[in-house]
Amino acid sequence: MRRGIASLRLGTTEEGFPAGFEEGLHAAMKEQNELGRIEVMPTAIATVIAQALAQCYGVAGLAPHRITDAVVNFFAPDARRGIEIREQPDGLVIHVYLILAYGVRLIEVARSVQHTIRHYVENVAGLPVAEVHVHIQGLRHPSDRG
User: Fold this and answer.
1) Is the dihedral of CA 127, 59, 65, 133 positive or negative?
2) Alpha-carbon distance 36 to 1, whole Å?
3) pLDDT of 105-128, one tens digit each?
4) Residue 72 reports pLDDT greater than 60
5) CB contact at 8 A, 134 and 93
6) CA dihedral defined by 52, 124, 3, 131, rounded to 10 degrees?
7) Rounded to an integer, what distance in angstroms lies between the CA atom of residue 97 and that of residue 138?
8) Nearest to 72 by CA among 20, 14, 26
9) What is this structure's pTM?
């Protein structure tokens, strides 16, 4: 069984494709069996992660970590833009860029996010997770809109 995944930074290119889907990066988690081929695309994994984050207490949203993603997100919102996925031999390495709710214990929420993402990806997608990196980009106060 051969598996491969490319680095994924969700944004869009000039052609309208997600950023990170450059030549040769259309790779997916792949498996060949007696019935045929199974592919799990990086966007599907990012969607699972975004859904996991929606279940986490204290997470106010995802934050694009590059200015170009922030501009693109203004015109075409996509919750997956604050997620990066890479594959290493021992499993996926996931980076999430978050905005947390003001007043929560940042480290506790970050730990919860790590465990929740690992659980969702391993149990829903069936893919091993080696590392989950949480980058807290900002805080959202209850009086902030959006």
Assistant:
1) negative
2) 12
3) 999 999 999 999 999 999 998 899
4) no
5) no
6) 40
7) 9
8) 14
9) 0.72
- Residue owning tokens 């659980």: 119
User: What distance in Å separates the CA atoms of residue 121 and residue 38, rounded to the nearest whole number?
Assistant: 16
Q: What is the pLDDT of residue 146?
A: 53
Token pair of 111, please?
């730990």
Mean pLDDT confidence for 37-43:
87
Cβ proximity of 61 and 104 under 8 Å: no
Structure tokens belonging to residue 12 = 């869009």
Q: Indicate if the pLDDT at residue 40 is higher than 90.
A: no
The first and second tokens of residue 55, run together, are 């279940």
Beta bridge partners of 59: 100
* Alpha-carbon span 1 to 109, nearest angstrom: 36
pLDDT at 67: 52
Interior/surface letters 79-112, b for 16+ CB within 10 angstroms, e for the rest: bbbbbbbbbeeebbbbbbbbbbbeebeeeebbeb
Name which of 142, 100, 115, 139 is nearest 49 in CA terms. Answer: 115
Asked if residues 82 and 64 have their Cβ atoms less than 8 Å apart, the reply is yes
Looking at residue 119, its amino acid is H
